[in-house]
Structure formats: structure tokens, C-alpha cells
Design brief:
There is one protein chain. This protein is an alpha+beta fold. It has a single domain, classed as Clavaminate synthase-like (Double-stranded beta-helix), CATH 3.60.130.10. It has eight helices and 15 strands. The strands form four sheets. Strands 1-2-3-13-5-15-4 form a seven-stranded mixed beta sheet, covered by helices on one side. The termini are far apart. 40% of the residues are buried.
């Protein structure tokens, strides 16, 4: 049965219906899902109930090589979802089932998600699709915003397109964490994930469209004075996250939202996170097969 995509924004983002995510997909369904991703870059799949962890993981396996285990260490973090190493926990619930304490390092780490970012740009093997399933949502707020970097690139002045062509940014998870108030990273944390280099103007590989590739993880531009590079990255990020390039998703329990990190930035928005639990679980697909050793 054909899936139906209804646009949610003038430029990108769609709501897709007609897919049963709880069972194995056909080749044709996978082709439609990927085709919609190339067109819309963020797709919302409503579900009456959240997927089981196993269903979520089985779904994501259809759309690319998967992340398996942590790609970095957060000192002292206890993993609530340790039995499912393909899942990343981006909620505010601790391993005992309580709302994370104010001084929880895991909470402070996840606060960095409130900056505009791209999942895993701090890794040489980039994230392609992230699929986030809402298990518990607060009664208000806690939306996620997405910014279309292909549309933003298209709208850049030609002089800026020429200026940025070939420029390479250095992306470090620890840079964005410190920016967002995370305590000084421990030596163990720093050693667990060194920076990665990526061009800031790229061709999106599967749609062939030109795109920016930005993130708050980007600390500087190679070969450019640090402050000059930061100013350019800020100018581009401010440009790319203007209202006309942004879709804001209001979550409903059960939603699976899939986005393409190669051409979008996203950010979490605030909610009463000491009052309400928010349980969000993410699978992440990667550009290339994962060969690094499993990290707990
Ligand atoms: Fe993210």
C-alpha cells in the first residue's frame, strides 16, 4: 500500500501515514521511506502507542548501518536503556525511573541538545537518519525544532557560497557541551571522543542537493583564526535557522520522527523538566558500517 506524505511546511517536513512500523518492512516501503526523506528531510510517523524497543530497533535497521553502543563516555552515567545498546536515551529519566537530579551529569549532558546541532557531527562516521520515538511527553512544551540547511544554502548570497566552498570545520562534542553549561569535561570524557573534521558546504549524497553542514559542535574553521571562524559559523547558523527555514514539531505520544542529519539541524526546546518526565528514545543510522569497538 502506498504511504501518504502530507507536507507540514512550505519547504520540507511531512507527516507520513499508511505504515505499520511494528512489523518488518517490504523493499517497496523502505524505498518510499527513503524517497520521502530525500524530499522532506524530516518525516513524522504518528503511532497510537510507542514502539517496543525491539520494534524500534528493527525498523531502523531497514534504513542504514546502525549505531550500537555509546560513541563517547559521560563519566558516571548509568544507562537506563543498557539492555538495548542501539538506543540513545534523550529523556530526563534516570536509571531508577525518577526525574534526573539537577546535578546529574547525564542531565547536564543532554541540556546541550537545546543548541542547534546535528547528531554525531563530532564523529568522522556521520549520522544519517535519527529516529526518535516519544514514549512519554510533557503536557505542554518540549517541542523539537528542525532547520532545513538545503533551503538555507540555496538562499545564501552567491558571494557567501563562494566564500565557504571547501572550508572545513572542526566538530567536538565537548565544545558544545561546555557552551551549554556542562561542567569541565573529565580527561576520560575528552579521550573518549576527539574532534572530527567536515566541510561546511556539502552535496547531500542521496538527493544531490547542495547543503550546509553546521552544528553547535563546530568549534572553529581549519586554517582560519579561531574567532574569525566562530563568527562565520555563527553568521551561517543564524542565517540557516531563520523562521522560514524552521519546522517546529509538537510531540504526541507514539510519534516516531525521522530526520536526516546530513542536511538538517535540530534543537530541543525547554519544558518543565524538573516536574514532568519526558521519555524519548533514539536510534541512529550511520553513513558507513560501524567498525569501532563497542563502548559501554
Ligand atoms: Fe540531537
Amino acid at each position: 500500500m502506498p504511504l501518504i506524505a502530507e507536507p507540514l511546511h512550505d519547504l520540507f517536513a511531512a507527516r507520513v501515514t499508511g505504515l505499520d512500523m511494528t512489523r518488518p518492512l517490504t523493499e517497496d516501503e523502505v524505498a518510499q521511506i527513503v524517497g520521502f526523506m530525500d524530499r522532506y528531510a524530516v518525516c513524522v510517523y504518528p503511532n497510537d502507542v510507542p514502539l517496543s524497543n525491539e520494534q524500534h530497533i528493527a525498523f531502523a535497521r531497514h534504513i542504514g548501518p546502525m549505531q550500537h553502543g555509546h560513541v563517547l563516555t559521560v563519566t558516571g552515567r548509568k544507562d537506563r536503556l543498557a539492555a538495548w545498546p542501539e538506543l540513545v536515551d534523550v529523556g530526563n529519566i534516570d536509571s531508577e525511573g525518577n526525574i534526573q537530579a539537577p546535578d546529574s551529569r547525564a542531565r547536564q549532558f543532554n541540556n546541550g541538545n537545546r543548541l542547534w546541532h546535528t547528531d554525531m557531527s563530532f564523529h568522522p562516521n556521520r549520522a544519517t537518519y535519527s529516529a526518535l520515538n516519544a514514549h512519554r511527553v510533557p503536557p505542554a512544551q518540549g517541542d523539537t525544532e528542525f532547520a532545513d540547511e538545503r533551503a538555507a544554502y540555496d538562499a545564501l548570497p552567491e558571494a557567501m557560497k563562494r566564500r565557504i566552498e571547501g572550508l572545513v570545520a572542526s566538530h567536538s562534542i565537548w565544545y558544545s557541551r561546555v557552551l551549554s553549561g556542562f561542567p569541565e569535561p573529565t580527561p576520560e570524557e575528552i579521550a573518549s571522543r576527539p574532534p572530527a573534521l567536515h566541510k561546511i558546504a556539502q552535496v547531500h549524497p542521496t538527493s544531490g542537493r547542495k547543503t550546509l553542514y553546521l552544528a553547535s559542535h563546530a568549534s572553529h574553521i581549519e586554517g582560519m583564526p579561531v574567532e574569525e571562524g566562530r563568527a562565520l559559523l555563527k553568521e551561517l547558523t543564524d542565517f540557516a535557522t531563520q523562521h522560514q527555514f524552521v519546522y517546529r514539531h509538537r510531540w504526541s505520544k507514539g510519534d516516531v520522527v525521522i530526520w536526516d542529519n546530513r542536511c538538517l539541524m535540530h534543537r530541543a526546546t525547554p519544558f518543565e523538566d524538573f516536574k514532568y518526565p519526558r521519555d524519548m528514545r533514539r536510534t541512529t543510522c550511520r553513513e558507513h558500517a560501524v567498525v569501532e569497538p563497542f563502548m559501554h
